[in-house]
């Protein structure tokens, strides 16, 4: 019995710590995702990647996960402020960027999902996004010979289930690690900031780090950042889930990593430029009973200092992540498993 457990432990560590699939960057905290219940395996990652790009998951075969989470936008989208779904439906929130998900324990702008393995179910079933049911998705996958082969490679048999499908998508998303920006290279002492970037970093640590904590550049908490309430959407944020008035207008604090690629900004995509975001924090904070304590006192920075902060924020861009072919449309996997090859 003990020898069997030892073998399982050896397999676990050999799988999740391979640089090909998952790694923990130096000086980062430990991930919160429990890999023992879904250890990373290349065949499952491959399956998840194919599923992520397949519009078959939507009711009318028109929308895939990648429709709103493009790799070239750091798995956010820049086409519009609010997400678009089947039948030209328009959602109520901007599609958040996807990266470093193993370090997160709640998902969505309001934290409605508390486990990565369940996250994909939300857009699949949302009527304004994919508008489908997991049962229908599973039925389609089981009737597809390519997926029969992909599930066999991943799980040892061709039968798709809801659990296998969702966990495979999680496997792919867990590999989306962004940790090779200029900032990261500076922290590893193999690069240096310019004078402007360094001043921006100093200002960032003074004014922004309370919510956007290094090295992940988010606390993963929820905050009311003083936005004017959109009178059309009237989005109450976290309170919609918690039903607690103390959570009114609180939204998940997003990571600032790859912020260059993830515009438009805020939960409703109201700002297209970083300069507009900084102007909000210095000129347009709306007071309320749930306003983040860090914003109770005015943030005073000059125009030149705003430019310096933006210069620093651009050092969080990770081109190796954004343009990594292993995260893009899986043509090579589809070709290798295609029944028509």
What does this molecule look like?
This protein is mostly helical and 341 residues long. It folds into two domains: 13-178 and 325-337, Orthogonal Bundle (Cytochrome Bc1 Complex, Chain D, domain 2); 182-317, Cytochrome Bc1 Complex, Chain D, domain 2 (Orthogonal Bundle), CATH 1.10.760.10. It is 37% helix and 1% strand. The model is unreliable at 1-18 (pLDDT under 50).
Helix content: 25-40%
Low-pLDDT ranges: 1-18
Report, as a whole number of angstroms, the end-to-end distance: 45 Å
Structural class: mainly alpha
Round the mean pLDDT to the nearest integer and report it: 93
Bin the strand percentage.
Answer: under 5%
CATH top-level class of the largest domain: Mainly Alpha
- Per DSSP, the total helix count is 15
Rg, nearest Å? 21 Å
For the biggest β-sheet, the strand order reads 1-2
The name of the CATH architecture of the largest domain is Orthogonal Bundle
